[in-house]
Write a structure and sequence with these properties.
Elongation Factor Tu (Ef-tu), domain 3, Rossmann fold, 615 residues, 16 helices, binds magnesium ion, 6 domains, binds guanosine-5'-triphosphate, alpha+beta
Amino acid sequence: MTVGNSSPKIGDAHGAPLQKHFIMATAGHVDHGKSALVKVLTGTDPDRLPEEKARQITIDLGFAELNLPGGIRVGLVDVPGHEDFVRNMIAGVGSIDLALFVVAADDGWMPQSEEHLQILKYLGVRHAIIALTKTDLAVTDIEVIRHRLRDTVFAQSPIIRTSVRTGQGLEDLKSAFAAEFATMQPPRDYGKPRLFIDRVFTLHGVGTVVTGTLTGGALRRAQKIVIQPGNRETRVRSIQSHNHELESAQPGMRTAINLPDVDVEEINRGNVITIADLGQPSTKLLAQVSLTQSLKSGSSVYLHHGTSRYAARILSLEKDGVAHVKLFSPLFAFLGDRFVLRDASERRTIGGGIVLDPDGDKHSKLPAATGDAGLCLRAAIASRGFVRKETLLRKSHFSADEIGAALLRLEKSHQVAICGELAADPDAWESLRTRAIRLIDAAHKRNPERPGLALNELRASLRGLSVDSFAALMTDLCADGFVRAGSAIARITHQASLPVALRPIEKKTRAALSEKPFDPTPRRAMGEDPQTRQVLRFLIEKGEIIEISEDVLLLSEHFAAMRATVVNFISKNGPATVSELRQTLHSSRRVMVPFLERLDRDGITRRVGEKRLLR
Ligand SMILES: Nc1nc2c(ncn2[C@@H]2O[C@H](COP(=O)(O)OP(=O)(O)OP(=O)(O)O)[C@@H](O)[C@H]2O)c(=O)[nH]1
Ligand SMILES: [Mg+2]
């Protein structure tokens, strides 16, 4: 297996030396000498396809390795310059640290010089070395190129004259790379690995291999991974970088992973290898976009992210560049990720942007500065009101520690309320609490005979509240003045009592049940009117009436007396039939059968054949 261009093979096990790893990609107009430079610098011809050889043009990405002094290991990605293959070019420069930007001296600045420059800008590439190639063919004033780079982050980048024919500038180029990388931090490891796949192939006897540039975190041999989108779980069998077998790969490494359990048909360029607990892909995002041409809300575009391209629609675009984007297939993006926008006919690059909220929908309001964990947290919480702590900024470039520390700071300064597993916007939380308390108080007033407000009623009234948020609200209320009463919630001070108007009905009910205490009036004979039902429910909830079956109600003192009689009878006379116990109690089968079943359930008696024994 290989990430370079030599014939695929599994190399011998080599220990990976501790090195600084970076990724560099070429950029620039077609035929300007990008691949020729890669070949002369690394000894690897990046054009690996027969069609590329035949047409003498790069069509797809090529890969090579460049080792520089100071332990700097560079994975080199060679991109096509032809306008038909801009899609492949963008896939090649999605996770790079440095661009080798090529302009041919004989041809000068050309359309894809400009377009590639724009793409690098939109993807947030901050470092470049410019090679003015083919200097054996023509002389071009460096200032002409410098002028083109003014007002870009590459305005001060070194411009080096090169020729692969005469060898001019090649050593200078390497020195410039080394000098540039020496000033740079290696790609960050924030514990969230993503490998944007750029190649998929099978090796005989090895199975499926994918390659890509690893970002965000390490991946190790035997690790459980997930392929997104699609949540396909599998395990890494082996890892290589530039033909060296590794225990683990670090961010900034060209990485080849053997996934023997996955069929090549199941996986494509553009898929992402990641880990399970980093959340789900989404089809909507909120982004800060900048554009080189005007774009209306509702426009169809292509959004290029990682090594993939997505058909998308701009749902809305504010004056400040905040856009809601709908994707026609799920995208696994992080807050802070960059992307490129191209027009629907794929002829022009029209802009690019940065993801503010990878699950953004219409309700997101507050765009965040994407570099500050505290601001991002506040934005995420403000836009949703309540968020499970563990999901906060999960899809972002912040590590779990950075998020935890920022959350703690916000909690201490009362900018975020922590309620159990939830982080909440303090104002949103307070207003939710207030609404809930009002509803509970109104219920106490409306139905003083009830133990409180039924939880399902409360939840329905607080429309749209998640299970987590509701649970956190209950915990919060019960810590401060409220209490759970069965499936209801009440003020601690609430004492269920019948309204005065219902007292006569209560009296009538008690009388009806006392007339023949062990064979009382059936429930349906006591009236079906709402007041009677209200009274019965109150007495049942208070425990003053025992509901033996749907139709048999006993006053609690009668229930206790019957139970004592049954226990007494059986202890004296041994196991007894329903009929014997019925006669003793002057009751009826209608009452005795469910009554004894209730004693069985309560663990007082046990039925054996036709008789009841004590337990
Ligand atoms: N004379 C001269 N020819 C060069 C030089 N560098 C490249 N070439 C030639 O220019 C042609 C294009 O070079 P490539 O390296 O394929 O150009 P490219 O930028 O990779 O082209 P695409 O990948 O298709 O965009 C080839 O015929 C090279 O031999 C140079 O320094 N001097
Ligand atoms: Mg090429």
